[in-house]
Amino acid sequence: MENRSYNPYVTERIRRFDGALAGVCYSAPFMHCKQESTTTLNGCNIISLHNQLPDAPELIIIPLTGNNLLRFLQAPDNYSCLQNENVQLAINYADLVQQDSALRQAAERFSFWLYDLAPPGTCWKNISTFPFRGIVLTDEFFNDNYLKFSFPFLLESCREREAEVILRTQQLTLTAEHYAQLNLSGWQQQRTSSMLLEG
């Protein structure tokens, strides 16, 4: 039975491969949250209380999809608190294609991460020409591709654009050195379903 009084904004921690906490990603769209102030963190969230986070997280990733993304794109001035340097807005490939022009305009003021790198039918040009600050690989995509010859080159092309590349997984299966050799900069500890952003 689901506890509806429980705050849904569970966070997933983002870590470097040396174990250092680098930030958090909300697992539910942040836009449902009633802001108590201009601060980005939800002070009522008992899971992401400050004793579990660094004083100033390097990254705060906020998923946006569906109606939440549309509301944001229709009135981006209403979300100026999301322009903080450490705040990144997460979108998926389908939304990138559907809202390309509006997202490119928003990217002049806001920072974006891509949360599904290569769904079927992906056109790499759509990804390579968008100014993403980071890309997150699913566990499934990583496991299917990391042994392929082209994989390190794919990740290196992302890093050359100064985009971070992290892996979202429940647990690490390789050594930290192996992940670093593949040009990954960290990982997000998955605590919810495999798809962070479901259309």
How would you describe the overall organization of this protein?
30% of the residues are buried. An 8-stranded mixed β-barrel has the order 1-2-3-4-5-6-7-8. It has a single domain, classed as Alpha-Beta Barrel (TIM Barrel). Mean pLDDT is 79; it is low at 1-8 and 31-54. The chain is globular and about 45 Å long. The longest helix is centred in the C-terminal third of the chain and has 10 residues, at 151-160. The chain has helices at 66-74, 93-98, 100-106, 124-128, 139-145, 151-160, 176-181, and strands spanning 11-15, 21-26, 59-63, 87-91, 112-114, 134-138, 164-169, 186-189. It is α/β, with parallel strands linked by helices. The two termini are 24 Å apart.
Could you say what the CATH architecture is?
Answer: Alpha-Beta Barrel
How confident overall, as mean pLDDT? Answer: 79
CATH-wise, what's the superfamily? EAL domain
Oligomer: single chain
Q: N- to C-terminal separation?
A: 24 Å
Integer count of domains? 1
Shape: globular
Q: How many strands appear in the DSSP assignment?
A: 8
CATH C-level class: Alpha Beta
Instruction: Report the sheet-strand fraction.
Output: 15-25%
Number of helices: 7
Sequence stretches where pLDDT stays below 50 over 5 or more residues: 1-8, 31-54
Q: Largest sheet at a glance?
A: 8 strands, mixed, barrel
- Structural class, please? alpha/beta
How helical, in percent, are the residues? 25-40%
Cα Rg: 16 Å
